[in-house]
Every structure is written in structure tokens, then in C-alpha cells.
Design a protein that fits this description.
With 171 residues, this protein is α+β, with helices and mostly antiparallel strands. The chain has one domain. Helix content is 36%, strand content 15%. The chain has three helices and six strands. Helix 1 packs parallel to helix 2, helix 1 packs across helix 3 and helix 2 packs across helix 3. The longest helix has 23 residues. Bound molecules: zinc ion.
Amino acid sequence: MIRQTLVLITMSALLNSKVASPGLGGADTETRHKYITDLIRVGRGELEIDAPVVYRPMPEKYRVDFDGEQLDACVMWKGNGYVIYLKKNLQDYKLAKIIAHELIHVWQYETGKMVICDHHVEFDGRVYKRPKQIDYELRPWEREAFAKSFQLSRKLKILVSEDPKHEKEKR
Ligand SMILES: [Zn+2]
């Protein structure tokens, strides 16, 4: 795959609300950081992803998808690994689902199922020349990410909360 040309990829569109999410990124950022890195670590294991994956706060410029939709997260290849960009102040309960979704995209890239080249996308051997013109929910790679991440996120929640290191911070 041509990683250098990976552009802004994918996203969990801001799903249901513009509801404020107080309390996040606030008092207990360390616990939150640990929770997110555990989700990523366990998820990589589940999907057998060898490539490094980290997360960072999402810069403003990535906030809006091609079609103007607001994004909760996106993932990109950045030189030596993948970076999941997360919108600030996401509610905790959304994290497992969002991380699972973005990791499915990493899996799509790593397995060669999906290739982004310049402005078109190849997915499952089919070339989409104008991916931006497909509605977000109808993009085949998004449909797959939503379908697969449902189960993965449930599994991640269980695995991460069963981790003895998380004894005190069950979610
Ligand atoms: Zn997506």
C-alpha cells in the first residue's frame, strides 16, 4: 500500500449529538489516557495489527469530513505508525466504540483490503474514484467498520475491564 499518500481517512461521524460532555479531559486525564491506550493495545492484539498505533487530540483542521460532517475521530498513517485523532471531550462511554471503529480501518489498510491513493479509494478490489461523493454511511469501508466495530468494542470493554491493572477503574 502507498502509505505516503494516505490522506485523511476515516471517521466516526459525530453520531448522535452535540450534547456537552463535561468531565472528560478534566480531572482524571491519566486514567483516561491509560484507558485509551489499553483499548488500543488490546484491540491491536485482537485484530493482529503489528503496526504501531497511537492517539492524539484532533486538530481543528481534521474536524470536518469531506461532506462537511463533524468527526469524532479519524486515523492516518503518520510516517512510522498510525495516529488515531480523537476529538477532545469525547464522552468516556463512546471511547471503546470509536477506538474499535478506527482500529478496523487500520486493519483494512494493513491487510490491503483498503488502499487510498491520491483521491480515490480501493476497497475489496473495487476502485471508488469519487469516494467523497458517496454518503458517509454508505461508504463500504465505513459500513464494514461500523458492522465489525460493534462486536469488537464490546469485546474490548470486557477485556480492558478484566485486565487486573484496571481493577479499580471498571467501566
Ligand atoms: Zn470510519
